[in-house]
Amino acid sequence: MKRIKLVYLFSILMFLLNNSCRQETRKDNLCPDLLSEVTDTLRYSSFVDSISYIRLETSDECLIGKIADVTFSDENIFVLDEYKQVIWIFNKKGKYLTQIAKKGNGPGEYTKISQIEYDKVTKQILALDLWTKTILYYDLNGNFIRKVQLEIYVSDFKVVPQGGYIISNAERAKSDAGIYLANAQGKVIRKLVMKSPKHMHPYNAYKELYDYNDTIAFIAPNFENGIYHYTYDSLELKYPFKFYPKIKNVYKENTYKKNGDDFTRTMYMEGKKWILIVFWSEKYDLRNFLYCKETNQYWIGKFLLNDIDGFQSRDNTSISTNNQFVFWCENRDCPEDNPILQILHLK
């Protein structure tokens, strides 16, 4: 009888301890529940101060197929065209200037660009060639400068201000999927965050690296969702989010499986003050997670609504500097014209 009582008391103690830990974690706002804490709609007005637009000029020389990503310099806008495999160059008012069209197999040419970046130091455009595993450097007139041969397959990258690159192949269903640090010669010198062998679900991770204030921010491969910051050779798990409900299924290597009631991440954006993550589940549909760094508060909504001017975006970009999120939209007046950039100036 005494043994039964001891076991009973031990069970109660463990329950209270676990519940206490869970409540303490909740207090830190790091364990959001995508089911029990969801509201119907998140509105732009809750985190957006104002919206501005840049109309990208349409001409016979410049007709964009589909925007894959956008990057800025102080004077220019660079648009990666996924369909035409062209880098279109505009000024900051959206006036078309020139293009980089080097698709081919010759010197200084690329086969399949997945991502572009602007190097503020060299004032050059960097293009990541998915198939040849190279980063190609061009000047603002489209002249080829040099290339860096990467050691591994890469789908996304950022330039480290102190030299080298943060590179990612996190979307792959492979044992080597993750985020790495590479030196200026493209050689991997450090594994930063690797994909779990239980979570080999393939997904689109072409725009999951963000940089601002000399910090490169990224989110752990699906389904981990912890957010890391790399700054001055230091890696920190800055926001160790643990989303509920927990993942029920195991996604083994080289297999694709529908996610059922598991929430898969479909978008992640991070800037100086805000984090936006979008999840999707076959059973529960969309969840938009918005987190304010300054107040340590979060909101979860099924829908994300532009209640400021009603102009809904088509897709996001990897720009988040100057406390902005940048999206692009189709031209509502003339759908055949080039898209419009939507810049959310955040609170």
Instruction: Just name the CATH architecture.
Output: 6 Propeller
Q: How many strand segments? A: 25
Task: Please tell me what the overall shape is.
Answer: globular
Name the average pLDDT.
89
Number of domains: 1
Provide the structure class. Answer: mainly beta
CATH topology: Neuraminidase
Order of helices and strands: HEEEEEEEEEEEEEEEEEEEEEEEEE
Bin the helical content: under 10%
Count of DSSP helices? 1
Strand content: 35-45%
Biggest sheet statistics: 5 strands, mixed
Output the CATH homologous superfamily. Answer: TolB, C-terminal domain
CA-CA gap between termini: 62 Å
Q: Supply Rg.
A: 22 Å
Give the spatial strand order of the biggest sheet.
1-22-21-20-19
Low-confidence blocks of residues: 1-27
CATH class term: Mainly Beta
Description:
This protein has 347 residues and is mainly beta. It has a single domain (32-346), classed as TolB, C-terminal domain (Neuraminidase, 6 Propeller), CATH 2.120.10. Helix content is 7%, strand content 42%. The protein is built from one helix and 25 strands. It has a five-stranded mixed beta sheet, with no helix packed on it. Residues 1-27 have low confidence and may be disordered.
